[in-house]
Amino acid sequence: MAWIYLLVASVFEVVFALATNATHGFTLLGPSLLTAAAAGGGIFFLSLALRSLDVGVGYTVWTGIGSVGTVTLGSLIFDEPMSAGRALAFVLIIGGVLGLKLSDRPADRPAPAA
């Protein structure tokens, strides 16, 4: 369930970033309210995910998915440029997120001794 919470938190993170851009310096009420709500939602669902996930994994995945989603949708919605270098960087971020997911230890298995 923690990974589902983390995905929901990541969606809120993308909405937060895109809405922040649409606030025009918090001069528009609607996008400003959406920004605040999305920030709260993202942090709330991240906190639920971190009940089970290591903070390093959870936060990294949250920001990684948020970054890729924000840049992808930013290029579509706000006509921001997408270069080959950016696309390669996003592929690397997605690879890192997948690697973190695959290396996550199950909650019922104890952590290795230090």
From TrEMBL:
It is a multi-pass membrane protein. It comes from the Bacteria. InterPro entries: EmrE-like, Small_drug/metabolite_transptr, Small_multidrug_res. Pfam families: Multi_Drug_Res. Keywords: Cell membrane, Membrane, Transmembrane, Transmembrane helix, Transport. The chain crosses the membrane at residues 33-50, 57-78, 84-102. It is found in: Cell membrane. The keyword Phosphoprotein does not apply. Belongs to the drug/metabolite transporter (DMT) superfamily. Small multidrug resistance (SMR) (TC 2.A.7.1) family. This is DMT family transporter.
